[in-house]
């Protein structure tokens, strides 16, 4: 059969764009269908009262300097034909993990974290070093039939101080764990490297810059991108996607379909789901985030130099859907001004406050109550942050808060579950022959994870056609 396109990609988030670049670069006829009016998905940008705000950017993880050619970031950039300079990455200054009893600092120099652990947990440092030598590899993520190994159990084999275990889990879980309470050790390993061994950076002009680079590269290579183009149904016939029905009534066909919208979401688009395939459940991990715009720079006027601060007010870090709308006993405070820049891009301060949130409770509120609760949560969140940034509340000039309900509305992620379902598809293959899943639900989360996922699915199932 002669198809108009060889590959249709559903979603122009980071994984869809990365897959598209690979395929277009090798001359495949590929089209990305994106329901929104711009690309980027969970990590896009939007205009807000005369400013451009990033939807979700705290940090690009896996940062290594340009000279380190063997690291995942360098390999991803090579695959996408982008240079390190194109990204104009500004590394972090310093990040902190603060628990009631102890505090650990880390930078993009891993030795600082080792030294911090030697100083604050002297009996643990040998175990910590052994742990870092025992981390699992990317390759293990996609090994077929792999069972989840509890990260908590593995950590206990190396570390005897429960407080250190909780402190290490806190940033790692916040930045990529789709499960409640525990996580997969392979996921833990990948995130450990991307956060602690490598590190944080920020594209100088935010996500818009990175997304534009990806879109330009894709289109220059001959890929087609259609905005405002929502996939409504995938018609399955004889175990294959036979037709892609769009919300505007158009019907498209392709040899291969790559979906980046999430596994449960992809399943709900399918007209038929094989009985032998598992019914994927949506994840429960969701967040509320407030973006505060300030009349001053936090480092200059408020003495706050930290790039990202992870705090937790209880002995054990509780990472699960909270009983209330949000869990302000823990949180992440990110200050985009506190990256190392040769010149400050803005005189306006920016602080992002993030907490675990309960989608089910948010989704039940009527419009007035929803607005009231957003304001209430903002006040609670600012109050908590003021312990670390004194006077924060007095300097807020504008603010925008989003909830899991916002995420579900804009991206279609069920329950606003940013890190997707725990029922991952590690190699991206579904039970439907020509349908692949890439991005978050392949098991690679975050900006760098999404890019890597797009590359691996395109390479493995289309270009080097296994
Ligand atoms: C608030 C927040 C903060 C974050 N912070 C960071 C961070 O600091 N660092 C980091 O590394 N990661 C961060 N992440 C995670 C990161 O954004 C994601 O892991 C990554 O962007 C996921 O990319 P993806 O391509 O897998 O999926 P998505 O970004 O979800 O892309 C899917 C795309 O599909 C489109 N779509 C959905 N349904 C349809 C349909 N039916 N038809 C057509 N198109 C459709 C959506 O509009 C979307 O554009 C954050 C996420 C959020 C929400």
Topology:
Elements: E1 5-10, H1 14-25, E2 30-33, E3 45-48, E4 51-54, H2 72-79, H3 84-87, E5 89-91, E6 95-98, E7 103-106, H4 110-120, H5 125-133, H6 138-141, H7 151-158, H8 162-174, H9 185-198, E8 201-203, H10 207-220, E9 224-226, E10 231-237, E11 240-246, E12 251-252, E13 254-259, H11 263-269, E14 286-294, H12 298-301, E15 308-312, E16 326-334, E17 349-357, H13 359-364, H14 367-385, E18 396-402, H15 404-411, E19 435-437, H16 446-463
Parallel strand pairs: 1-2, 1-13, 2-9, 6-15, 13-19
Antiparallel strand pairs: 3-4, 5-8, 6-7, 10-11, 11-12, 14-17, 14-18, 15-16, 16-17
Q: What this model shows, in words?
A:
Helices cover about 35% and strands about 20% of the residues. The protein has about 475 residues and is α/β, with parallel strands linked by helices. It contains 16 helices and 19 strands. The chain has helices spanning about 15-25, 70-80, 85, 110-120, 125-135, 140, 150-160, 160-175, 185-200, 205-220, 265-270, 300, 360-365, 365-385, 405-410, 445-465; strands at about 5-10, 30-35, 45-50, 50-55, 90, 95-100, 105, 200-205, 225, 230-235, 240-245, 250, 255-260, 285-295, 310, 325-335, 350-355, 395-400, 435. A hairpin with a 2-residue loop joins β3 and β4 (about 50-55). The longest helix is centred in the C-terminal third of the chain and has 19 residues, at about 365-385. The mean pLDDT is about 95. Flavin-adenine dinucleotide binds near residues 10, 11, 35, 261 and 418. Flavin-adenine dinucleotide binds near residues 12, 34, 413 and 439.
């Amino acid at each position: 059969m002669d198809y108009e396109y060889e590959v249709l990609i559903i979603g122009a988030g980071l994984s869809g764009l990365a897959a598209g670049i690979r395929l277009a670069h090798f001359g495949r006829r590929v089209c990305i269908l994106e329901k929104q009016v711009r690309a980027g998905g969970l990590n896009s940008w939007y205009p807000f009262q005369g400013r451009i705000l990033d939807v979700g950017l705290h940090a690009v993880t896996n940062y290594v300097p340009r000279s380190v050619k063997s690291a995942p970031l360098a390999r991803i950039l090579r695959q996408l034909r982008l240079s390190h300079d194109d990204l104009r990455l500004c590394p972090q200054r310093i990040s902190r993990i603060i628990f009631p009893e102890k505090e650990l600092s880390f930078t993009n120099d891993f030795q600082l974290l080792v030294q911090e652990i030697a100083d604050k947990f002297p009996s643990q440092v040998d175990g910590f070093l052994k742990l870092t030598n025992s981390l699992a590899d990317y390759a293990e993520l996609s090994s077929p039939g792999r069972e989840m190994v509890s990260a908590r159990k593995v950590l206990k084999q190396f570390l005897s101080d429960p407080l250190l275990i909780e402190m290490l889990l806190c940033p790692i879980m916040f930045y990529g764990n789709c499960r409640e309470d525990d996580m997969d050790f392979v996921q833990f390993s990948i995130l450990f490297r991307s956060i602690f061994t490598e590190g944080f950076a920020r594209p100088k002009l935010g996500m818009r810059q990175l997304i534009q680079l990806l879109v330009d590269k894709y289109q220059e290579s001959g890929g087609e991108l259609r905005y405002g183009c929502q996939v409504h149904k995938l018609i399955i016939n004889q175990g294959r996607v036979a037709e892609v029905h769009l919300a505007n009534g158009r019907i498209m066909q392709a040899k291969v379909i790559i979906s980046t919208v999430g596994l449960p979401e992809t399943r709900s688009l399918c007209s038929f789901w094989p009985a032998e395939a598992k019914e994927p459940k949506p994840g429960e991990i969701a967040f509320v985030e407030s973006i505060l715009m300030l009349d001053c720079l936090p480092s200059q006027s408020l003495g706050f130099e930290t790039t990202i601060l992870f705090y937790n007010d209880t002995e054990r870090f509780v990472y699960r859907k909270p009983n209330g709308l949000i869990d302000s006993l823990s949180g992440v405070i990110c200050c985009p001004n506190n990256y190392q820049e040769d010149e400050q891009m803005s005189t306006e301060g920016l602080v992002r406050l993030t907490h675990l949130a309960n989608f089910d409770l948010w989704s039940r509120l009527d419009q007035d109550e929803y607005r009231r609760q957003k304001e209430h949560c903002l006040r609670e969140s600012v109050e908590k942050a003021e312990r670390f940034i004194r006077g924060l509340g007095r300097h807020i000039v504008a603010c925008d808060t989003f909830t899991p309900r916002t995420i579900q509305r804009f991206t279609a992620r069920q329950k606003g579950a940013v890190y997707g379902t725990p029922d991952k598809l590690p190699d991206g293959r579904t039970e439907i022959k020509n349908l692949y899943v890439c991005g978050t639900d392949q098991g690679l989360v975050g900006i760098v994870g999404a890019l890597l996922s797009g590359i691996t699915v395109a390479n493995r199932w289309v270009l080097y056609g296994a």
